[in-house]
Amino acid sequence: MTIFPAIDLRGGKCVRLFQGDFGQETVFSNRPADVARKWQEQGAEFLHLVDLDGARSGHSENLATVQDILAAVTIPVELGGGIRTMENIDAVLALGVRRVILGSVAVRDPKLVADACAKYGDRIVVGIDAKDGIVAVDGWGISGDIEVITLAKRMKEAGVRTIIYTDISRDGTLSGVNVKATAELARESGVRIVASGGVRDARDIKALKPYERDGIEGVIVGKSIYTGSLSLPEALAIAAEVN
């Protein structure tokens, strides 16, 4: 199972939000590249970047900072947030980003997702952010009026192989990952799932571990590793254990 340290970008800074609320922001660093280097030094094998400004505006806003991060590390990086055109996908991947995460556009323009998958294969990942089983779009501010499992199955048909599933109600709360809903999504969709939202400590990593066989291939860790409630090396060690 892969552990993805998260670096959320807003105004060129590394921040964390509470339940996706832009009004409840904590700034953890003014130098995101240094944060990326730190996680790599602690053993991270893949970084998860989110352009929060882009998620709201509908186009990438923090690419200069992403370039700084790419120059600072040698491990692969994935990026999501406001990437909604093929031109934007092309540009982001051309920078050296390993995987692009498509979110709102998966609801509004599934053909673009299919076209992107046909062009780039597993370098295209879909992020499904939801609350009470209903997908949210546009930086989590608007309901997408579609159930999570329905969208996941459509994305599988479009060629998507990996979905990042975020429970908005838990994101940034340190209240524990939604293991049940994540495992159910993996089983019912037949798509590899990366869990996101609410991870507090090592118990969450241990709780997800048995569901690797159901299709949970990774977990994103954010606020927990910034506040110290979870040690990244410990999480990596648990993830590497053989079931």
Could you explain the architecture of this structure?
By secondary structure, the protein is of the alpha/beta class. It has a single domain (2-240), classed as Aldolase class I (TIM Barrel). The protein is 39% helix and 30% strand. It is built from eleven helices and twelve strands. It has helices at 32-41, 52-57, 63-72, 86-95, 104-108, 110-120, 148-158, 179-189, 202-208, 223-227, 232-240; strands at 2-10, 13-18, 21-29, 47-51, 77-80, 99-102, 124-131, 134-137, 142-147, 162-167, 192-196, 216-221. Strands 1-4-5-6-7-10-11-12 form an eight-stranded parallel beta barrel, surrounded by seven helices. The longest helix is centred in the middle third of the chain and has 11 residues, at 110-120. The radius of gyration is 16 Å and the shape is globular. The termini are close together.
Which terms would index this structure?
243 residues, 11 helices, globular, alpha/beta, eight-stranded parallel beta barrel, 12 strands, TIM Barrel
Q: Would you summarize the structure shown here?
A:
The protein has helices at 32-41, 52-57, 63-72, 86-95, 104-108, 110-120, 148-158, 179-189, 202-208, 223-227, 232-240, and strands at residues 2-10, 13-18, 21-29, 47-51, 77-80, 99-102, 124-131, 134-137, 142-147, 162-167, 192-196, 216-221. With 243 residues, it is of the alpha/beta class.
Approximate helicity band: 25-40%
Overall 3D geometry? globular
Instruction: Give the topology string: H per helix, E per strand.
Output: EEEHEHHEHEHHEEEHEHEHEHH
Q: Quote the CATH topology.
A: TIM Barrel
Radius of gyration: 16 Å
Profile the largest sheet.
Answer: 8 strands, parallel, barrel
CATH architectural designation: Alpha-Beta Barrel
Question: What is the terminal-to-terminal distance?
Answer: 10 Å
